[in-house]
Design brief:
- By secondary structure, the protein is of the alpha/beta class.
- The protein has one domain.
- The protein has a 5-stranded mixed beta sheet.
- Helix 1 links the parallel strand 2 and strand 3.
- The longest helix has 34 residues.
């Protein structure tokens, strides 16, 4: 376990980083952000963020990325589904495919290369109890980030979006040729 607030920077992917809420100067929030960046770039398996403002900002950023991912996948699936059900009306599936492509593009531009997208917010106390190193360490107001492999997720939403776009383009071409 690495207590980031103590200034230790030797972190690895198996470490648990704890960003302590210690206000020792007027630039404390910037120091918290820097500590979070170090932990994210080191790829720590679990990051505990004690400062509530930073934890809330990080949790919102992750939830917006999750929303874009889910919207891209669901609208892409519904685009193909509506294109198959109402095959004589390709204009019904086109807006859904466009939404899927737009969400995938936004995710790719804004989230794909951000190290924060490799983490999910862990909210269940039962799941946190599975990590013995966190027992009694995590305050209730903390945000806990758990590193997850998201490569399949990126491939899924990109594939679904491209498939939906190609399918709708083919439906429009086939209808108006």
């Amino acid at each position: 376990m690495v207590d980031i607030g103590a200034g230790d920077s030797d972190m690895g992917p198996d470490d648990i980083a704890i960003i302590r809420e210690v206000y020792d100067n007027e630039n404390a929030h910037e120091a918290f952000e820097l500590e979070l960046e170090k932990a994210l770039e080191a790829g720590c398996s679990i990051i505990v963020v004690e400062p509530s403002r930073l934890g809330d900002e990080t949790a919102r950023w992750i939830s917006v990325g999750n929303c874009l991912h889910k919207t891209a996948v669901l609208s892409g699936i519904f685009a193909v589904g509506t294109g198959l059900i109402w095959n004589e009306r390709p204009y019904l599936c086109t807006p859904l495919a466009a939404l899927s492509l737009l969400c995938t593009g936004l995710y790719t531009i804004s989230w794909q290369f951000d190290p924060c997208c490799q983490y999910q917010v862990e909210t269940g106390t039962d799941k946190l109890g599975k990590h013995p190193a966190l027992a009694g360490v995590v305050p209730a107001s903390s945000v806990v980030l758990v590193r997850k492999d998201n490569s399949r997720r990126k491939i899924l939403h990109t594939s679904v979006s491209l498939l939906a776009t190609a399918f709708c383009a083919w439906r429009i071409y086939d209808t108006y040729k």
